[in-house]
Amino acid sequence: MYQLGERVKFSLFGKSHSSYIGGILEGIPAGMTVNENLISEDMQLRKPSAGIGTPRSEDDKVEFVQGLYNGKTDGNPILFLIPNQNTDGSKYLKFIETPRPGHADLPALVKFNEHDIRGGGQFSGRLTAAIVAGGSIVKQFNSKFGITTSAFTRSIGSVKDTEERNIADAKISKKYPTRACDQTLNDAMTEEILNASKDMDSVGGVIECITTGLPIGFGGIWFEALDAEIAKAVFGIPACKGIEFGKGFELARMRGSQSNDPFYYNDGVKMKTNNMGGILGGMSDGAPMVFRTIFKPTPSIGKEQDTVNLTKSENAKLIIQGRHDPCIVPRAAIVVEAVTAMVIADQIQRGL
Which of 37, 156, 229, 290 is most solvent-facing, going by the fewest CB within 10 Å? Predict the structure, then answer.
């Protein structure tokens, strides 16, 4: 199992083509009502959309084994399973000899004896379904403290949303298949994905995540810093290759007089700008916590690629067949929300 958190701890298990994937969520107190409809809504946001997502279709029905009784937490670890139903792995077997560029195949085959290559095994984005289910429960826990987390697509390929966005915009993005904030951007991002797909290729993008309701001083410092722990969790999502808070790398081109967020009083201390993304010294400064994370283009593409034949110890060519997303960004937004919420809940229970 793969674990995140200390007091609110999430354990992930399963493989792409095993009978089940699932999770164990610990640290949620007894007596909390869990709205399973909200879980279903989040699970739906992770599913592929027609045309811009993989043809692999799963019901993603979350089966609770323990931890819930009559719709409420009973204080025990919450154990749930999600059946894998669509598990044709025949097209993956050749990757044992000819690993896919951009995938975990090569290091996994070298590191693990009898690595299950089907669907990428334990490295598959399929496992994010369990992360979303656990994260949905955690978001309901966080809401008791007035904390809300929502994400949206900031860019896909060359199509970029240049508007200033807030958490209301991020919530609106759930209406659109690409998780864009309006119809015009959704159409442009859809076209970008479809064009890549027509070329037997893929495209990546950027997700922005916003959290409101964090009080000033919330979060740890140094290696327990709120942004440090979120960065670790987000990097655990398959295909994530970068993260920045606030203005991020743009800060390198600013002077301090430009980058500092001036304080002022208005029903408490507020910030005139939010260049720091709501984080100072690893703690919340009371402004919305804002970060962006980069997801690479899906490495499984239909174009011929250079690889090696591990059995023959020679160079080889590879054409990948099967069911793959031409862009994973729209489906990853809800996963980013989930791990962010888990870190926040864990820090709540740790008293940071």
Answer: 37
pLDDT, position 60: 86
The string of pLDDT tens digits covering residues 213-248 is 999 999 999 999 999 999 999 999 999 999 999 999
Question: What is the average pLDDT across 39-60?
Answer: 84
| Confidence (pTM) | 0.94
CATH class of 2-350: alpha beta
Q: Which of 18-27, 44-53, 86-95, 181-190 is the most confident on average?
A: 181-190
Structure tokens at 46: 């992770």
CA distance 109 to 111: 6
SS (H, E, C) the chain: CEEECCCCEEEEEECCCCCEEEEEEECCCCCCECCHHHHHHHHHHHCCCCCCCCCCCCCCCCEEEECEECCEECCCCEEEEEECCCCCCHHHHHHHCCCCCCCCHHHHHHHCCCCCCHHHHHHCHHHHHHHHHHHHHHHHHHHCCCCEEEEEEEEECCEECCCCCCHHHHHHHHHCCCCCCCHHHHHHHHHHHHHHHHCCCCCCEEEEEEEECCCCCCCECHHHEHHHHHHHHHHCCCCEEEEEECCHHHHHHCCHHHHCCCEEECCCEEECCCCCCCEECCEECCCCEEEEEEECCCCCCCCCEEEEECCCCEEEEECCCCCCCCCCHHHHHHHHHHHHHHHHHHHHHHCC
Q: Which of 28-32, 109-113, 218-222 has the lowest mean pLDDT?
A: 109-113
